[in-house]
Specification:
Blueprint lengths: L1 E10 L2 E11 L4 E5 L6 H8 L5 E8 L2 E2 L5 H7 E4 L10 H6 L14 H13 L15 H14 L4 E5 L7 H16 L3 E5 L3 H7 L2 E6 L2 E7 H6 L2 H6 L1 E8 L2 E8 L2
Parallel strand pairs: 3-8, 3-9, 6-7, 7-8
Antiparallel strand pairs: 1-2, 1-4, 4-5, 9-10, 11-12
Length: 254
């Protein structure tokens, strides 16, 4: 369980998020949604210790974030950030970076580490790209390689900031099916998504943010029924069944 209590966070002392109290259950997919600039990425960065909080507390299974050593926290949480550099590395070399929190000071990968790297690339469909330079890959291919690096870290908690960025619609479904598979392996996933239909289709829990505050948090079906997303985004929505599966539609309000 990840708990946030009276959290305020922002940049250069100016809060973007104000007085948030939220919880994210273990072994579930929890997704943050909200308009641009509402604080979704800021919250994710604060939760994964990339951005210091202004006030308030964060707890991981009852242990405060401040009590974790850097390597200990890197073995607990892996992060897929929204924006990244393109280092002069081959794909497998980048994915291998995910194993660094588990290595000694020499950073020599063991056989078991290479197996984790290969398994992560297999899951993300990037093994055929292992010898390609990152600069030679398409945006979607690089996105999957970075996700493979996150998986190779083999942590119980994953923070994913827009994991479907740069992907076409088919690839988006593939990645989110993979996210569900990872959840079913017992992982806890907190992610940011802009795509509302995908957010409601693939999330166990939804948190709606607006103007730096949490308007609602709960099971995705309940949050949808309360139509809070409709009001926040100024849209209308429908829930439909297609080939036995529940799908969510959002369209311009009339």
């Amino acid at each position: 369980m990840i708990e946030i209590k009276k959290l305020s966070a922002g940049y250069r002392g100016v809060p973007v998020l104000r007085d948030l109290t939220l919880s994210f259950p273990t072994g579930k997919i929890s997704t943050l949604i909200g308009p641009n600039g509402c604080g979704k990425s800021t919250l994710l960065k604060t939760m994964c210790a990339l951005l210091p909080s202004i006030s308030g507390e964060l707890f991981f299974d009852g242990k405060p974030l401040s009590a974790f050593h850097r390597r200990e926290f890197a073995r607990l949480c892996a992060v897929l950030p929204q924006s990244r550099n393109i280092p002069a590395l081959r794909a497998m070399e980048l994915v291998a970076h995910g194993r660094y929190p588990h290595l000694s000071f020499s950073r020599n990968l063991r056989e078991e580490d290479w197996k984790k790297v290969a398994a992560a690339m297999e899951k993300t469909g990037t093994l055929p790209l292992k010898d390609r330079l990152l600069s030679s890959l398409s945006g979607g291919e690089r996105q999957r390689v970075y996700l493979a690096m996150t998986l190779a870290q083999d942590t119980p908690v994953l923070f994913l900031d827009e994991p479907t960025t740069y992907l076409d619609i088919g690839q988006k479904y593939e990645i989110l099916e993979l996210v569900k598979f990872i959840r079913d392996e017992g992982k806890t996933i907190v992610m940011v998504l802009h795509d509302l239909p995908l957010a409601f289709s693939y999330s166990d829990e939804i948190t709606v943010l607006a103007e730096g505050r949490a308007l609602c948090q709960g099971p995705s079906a309940r949050v949808f029924e309360e139509r809070i997303a409709d009001r926040v985004f100024g849209v209308s929505s429908r829930q439909v069944t297609v080939e036995g599966k529940t799908e969510y539609l959002f369209f311009r309000a009339t």
